[in-house]
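Appendix B. Extra example for self-study. Work through it before the problem class; the solution is given directly after the inputs so you can check yourself.
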Amino acid sequence: MNRADQQIFEKIAFEHVDRLFGTALKLTRNSAEAEDLVQETFTRAFQHFDQFEQGTNFKAWIFRILVNTYINGYRRKERAPVLVDFTEMEPVYEEAAQETSFLNQPAESLYDLLDDEVKQALERLPEEYRMVLLLASVEGFSYEEIAKMVGCPIGTVMSRLFRARALMRKSLVEYARERGLREKK
Amino acid sequence: MNCSEARKLVHLFVDGALDPRANVDVLAHLNMCAACSARFEDAKKFEEFLRSKLRHDETPAGVRIRLESGIARLSQPWPARMAWRLKRHPMAAMSGVAAVLAISLVGWQTCGVLFTCPYVRASADHYLRIAAGELPMTVPGSAATLAGSVPVRKFDGLEHSGRGVFALSDNLRDAVGDAYRMTHCPTGSRCVVLFSVSLPGVDIGNHDCVEMHGRKFTRWEYDGCRLVCWKDEKNGLYCIMVCKKQEMEDDALLNIASLAATE
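Solution. Structure tokens for the complete assembly:
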């Protein structure tokens, strides 16, 4: 890679570093691993920068590398106890989909939840759901872009995203209720 | 479009993924249905709420520096990278090559990029929580375990900010990486960390070996940190490390190591 290409890479890659590191941190839930994940992403992106088509979406391209690197190298076996069996979760989804109490919660109590409480709810999501929620809701990628990143059909991405949001709502309603109860006491 | 049909499209609507025709149909329905309109508004508000609460913090300066130096290193042709290392740290560069060769020979994990592999398996916080008894003595991703903690050590002329945690690892590279992660030296400050490694049958090897006061020391380099290791007959391998790419003459580092070894 010549010096000019290197400068172009550095300029556009570092524009996305906060988003890449933030996403890595939320995926790995470990700052040291997030750091390594982003460095490996940068290394791979730099080494394959000649394959990036100028004028196309660089953010989607480098996020795809991040997600692939995470899936292939950082999704470790010891994370397994944290994962939830999807079939066991099925009733929860149904319940969450039918959840109406969210609408009945006073908006101020729910929307007054702290950043940390929302982040904790995110951490409790199964990994596949957490990933699509981050890519769609936080990063604003389209279903198609996410499908390419995670290697799943668009329909799977949509159903994971729907369930992720439903589970987040359920968790946050519980947080808001608990907080309401604490404040009453 | 009825309420049931409209509500199935709420997420597509919020995500802006509806085709223009369906979008018009949904908007027409929302104009005449207060209940669906409230539900759609709520979904939109919830999405905005999530986006704002899950926004990313600014990346720590240390991470940016590490990324920049990684790119700078990668952008140099391989002979130039080695020439730079040889000129700047001749002994350490040679020991790095020797270490990589040795590692290849004994079958340890190999890596694509010299000196920039993610060996580190756990954060400093993880170790400290282990030391506090909050977590089991196992480090995710490796067979490494923690032996205990030691008081903070201070050496002549150096501000010390190492956490003073002894790491036991199944290989030296992991242990060095772990120790590297445990040091939180402010940029530009001089700090060192002392750690021990328990490796059954380990030897410090012959690469870049120096003898001082009747004891053998070996010198290594790891991702900008420079370290000197020596073997203790009772307790295995000890290493002392200076991090954050600070300048220090080889002799000064060896003197510190010698001092630590005799304590």
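Self-check: The beta strands of chain B are 145-149, 165-168, 192-197, 209-212, 215-222, 225-232, 236-242. If your reasoning did not lead you there, revisit section 3.
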